[in-house]
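Duplicate of #3305? Posting structure anyway:
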């Protein structure tokens, strides 16, 4: 399946209120979401046939649409149900779900007040985002040229398609140099996040993570922070200067796609994945598994 283009896969997905054959779910080339990035989406993981924190993801999808100035024409419950139907239609036990909402083709200009809002949800198998052997050993990351924008210049609290353009550019540039990802600074020059994941650092047993004031406060990020607090780890959210990277012993990233993954290098800075990274990786793996009710 990994080599099959996403528009040519078999099965069904949920599209504007019903399950349709996968290859019939088409969008016209003159679609506002394509030309003007008026599109929001979510990324969700399926573990043991259940979508982890589905309601939180759906609520964020609706919030993102609100920030972009459009209303999803379904209820939160209907989108939850759509995601579950997409999983069931494909028979996915462990995989990935992508709900997405976008403006259609009624108007093709910056203004799009009359455009219909389309919604879809698709599911597919997706193993580890990075090579599984690197999950604890640690990935190598470059330092991106582009920075996360100021909240005054972009809707940073939304999971909007347009915000990922510089992420794709930065990840491609890093991969061309042999790295797996890239660390992005924010508009002020502080450490922000990876191209698609939040980042944590460890110093003297204390976790340090950038304040999410111009990028998404990820659902996985918050989950891992809760798990860390249960372990008694201190967490400091603050602005981190790039020159501080030499002071940290461990580094790991979090996200729906990457889950919890260790980082061994960021540019000239090196880290040694150790106890805290391993512990939170294990705790997260246990957290996402469906809970079995006692008889």
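Output from current build:
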């Amino acid at each position: 399946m990994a080599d099959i283009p996403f528009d040519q896969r078999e099965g069904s997905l949920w599209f504007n209120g019903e399950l349709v054959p996968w290859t019939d779910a088409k969008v016209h080339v003159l679609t506002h979401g394509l030309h003007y990035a008026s599109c929001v989406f979510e990324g969700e993981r399926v573990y043991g046939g259940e979508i982890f924190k589905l309601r939180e993801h759906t609520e964020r999808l609706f919030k993102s649409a609100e920030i972009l100035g459009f209303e999803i024409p379904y209820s939160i419950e209907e989108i939850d149900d759509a995601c579950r139907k997409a999983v069931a239609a494909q028979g996915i036990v462990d995989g990935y779900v992508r709900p997405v909402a976008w403006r259609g083709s009624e108007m093709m200009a910056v203004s799009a007040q009359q455009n219909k809002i389309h919604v879809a949800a698709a599911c597919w198998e997706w193993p580890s985002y990075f090579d599984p052997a690197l999950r604890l050993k640690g990935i190598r990351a470059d330092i991106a040229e582009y920075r996360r924008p100021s909240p005054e210049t972009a809707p940073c609290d939304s999971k909007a398609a347009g915000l990922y353009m510089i992420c794709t550019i930065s990840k491609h540039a890093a991969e061309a140099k042999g790295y797996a990802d890239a660390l992005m600074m924010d508009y002020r020059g502080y450490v922000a996040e990876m191209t698609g994941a939040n980042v944590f650092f460890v110093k003297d047993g204390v976790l340090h993570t950038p304040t999410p004031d111009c990028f998404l406060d990820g659902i996985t990020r918050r989950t891992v922070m809760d798990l860390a607090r249960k372990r008694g780890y201190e967490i400091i959210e603050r602005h981190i200067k790039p020159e501080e990277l030499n002071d940290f012993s461990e580094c790991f990233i979090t996200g729906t796609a990457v889950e919890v993954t260790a980082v061994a290098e960021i540019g000239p800075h090196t880290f040694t994945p150790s106890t805290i990274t391993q512990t939170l990786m294990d705790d997260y793996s246990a957290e996402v598994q469906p809970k079995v009710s006692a008889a």
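Confirmed duplicate; merging threads. The chain has a mean pLDDT of 95. DSSP finds seven helices and 16 strands in the chain.
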